[in-house]
Write a structure and sequence with these properties.
Elements: H1 9-24, E1 34-40, H2 43-51, E2 56-64, H3 73-77, E3 84-91, H4 98-106, E4 116-117, E5 120-121, E6 127-131, H5 134-150, E7 160-163, E8 167-169, H6 177-180, H7 182-192, H8 194-202, H9 215-221, H10 224-232, E9 250-254, E10 260-263, E11 267-268, E12 276-277, E13 286-291, E14 298-303, E15 309-314, E16 324-327, E17 332-336, H11 340-343
Parallel strand pairs: 6-7
Antiparallel strand pairs: 1-3, 1-6, 2-3, 2-8, 4-5, 9-10, 9-17, 11-12, 12-16, 13-14, 14-15, 15-16
Length: about 350
């Protein structure tokens, strides 16, 4: 829902609620999009890992699984309505699969907790996959079985696969809470135990956020040129850098934090001697700033969490965007398509073709 971020906050909240209501009723969900509904405990924590995925149109917090119509937060929090805090995802199945959404879901919850999630206790915080059709049910059950066979957990997996009935969007102040009140969100999350559990099971999984190391750590990690470009807004020489003529399939991530930034699908030959792209891979990780240095006014491109200097964007690119993201190789790390799962980016594998020429499912 990245385009809506440009709207005033109050208008954006109203649109979120309207979209959530109409999509939950099946009124505006066109054939090009589908819905997925997951309960994973506190919905504040379940929005961020899905909102950054390519192909996800919107993520709305709300309530599902109960019988009472249009419940309030207070009513659900009592535990007596039968509802669970949940998120409803509207996504483009041509860009991201339901199976990928399931994988992200599993990596952000404790599926062995029968009485809540982490610091939040009660039936309203129980996990669940609410399938919308037989295909989703089959995929969810298959995913659950596969996770069980991996034996990652000491306790039994208790997350339920349940038929979807109704979804009620939560109050406006709950939507995108991590953006509205980042200080309170970070305080709550750090004390909830969720991140500690995720790291203990999955390692330093990058589906939630990308933490920037200290400056000393960055300097030890990078070459002198990489440090100069990313941390001091430098520029590398054209035609004498790592990726300007790289034609392999894969994605380009932030050299410092690993944020997924660009894809070979959107890379083109600009003739400038630097890697050039028509668009970001995940718009949420690319930040634009005005650069008035060197007697010019340009649009600088930086990574969101790493705040790394990446390059600049110009309006002389090819269709469909007409943009040219001119990026320093020194700011990027390339991950070939065959290494995406191993490197922790399975959600991006789908956009590339297998050797036979068909898209990977």
């Amino acid at each position: 829902m990245h385009n809506l971020d440009l709207l005033p906050s109050k208008l954006r909240i109203v649109l979120f609620l309207l979209i959530g209501y109409f999509t939950s009723c099946g009124i505006i969900a066109g054939p090009e999009t589908e819905k997925a509904t997951f309960a994973g405990g506190c919905f504040w924590c379940m929005e961020p890992p899905f909102e950054v995925l390519p192909g996800v149109v919107s993520v709305i917090s709300g309530y599902t699984g109960g019988k009472e119509k249009d419940p309030s937060y207070e009513e659900v929090s009592s535990g007596y309505t039968g509802h669970r805090e949940a998120i409803q995802i509207t996504y483009d199945p041509k860009q991201i699969s339901y199976e990928t959404l399931l994988e992200v879901f599993w990596r952000n919850i404790d599926p062995t907790d029968p009485d809540g999630q982490f610091v939040d206790r009660g039936s309203q915080y129980k996990t669940g996959i609410f399938y919308h059709n037989p295909d989703q049910k089959k995929a969810a059950e298959k995913s659950l079985l596969a996770l069980t066979k991996r034996k990652l957990f000491k306790k039994k997996i208790v997350t339920e696969v349940i038929g979807f009935d109704r979804f009620y969007p939560a109050e406006g102040y709950h939507q995108d809470f991590y953006k509205k009140d980042p200080s309170q969100y970070k305080s709550y999350r750090s004390g909830s135990g969720r991140d500690q559990f995720i790291e203990s099971v999955w390692g330093k999984e990058k589906t939630v956020r990308f933490l920037k190391p200290s400056l000393d750590e960055i300097q030890k990690k990078l070459s002198s040129l990489q440090f100069e470009v990313t941390q001091k807004d430098g520029t590398e020489p054209p035609f004498e850098n790592e990726y300007w003529d790289n034609h392999k399939e894969g994605i380009y991530v932030d050299r410092v934090t690993g944020e997924p930034l660009f894809s070979s699908v959107d890379k083109f030959e600009s003739g400038t001697g630097w890697p050039s792209f028509t668009r970001p891979l995940v718009a949420a990780y690319v930040v634009m700033k005005t650069d008035s240095s060197h007697g010019m006014v340009r649009s600088e491109v930086r990574s969101k969490y790493g705040n790394s200097h990446l390059g600049h964007v110009f309006d002389d690119g090819p269709k469909p965007t007409g943009l040219r993201y001119c990026i320093n190789s020194a700011s990027l790390k390339f991950i070939p398509k065959e290494d995406l799962e191993k490197a922790g980016y399975p959600e991006f594998r789908r956009q590339f073709s297998d050797p036979a020429g068909s898209k990977v499912n």
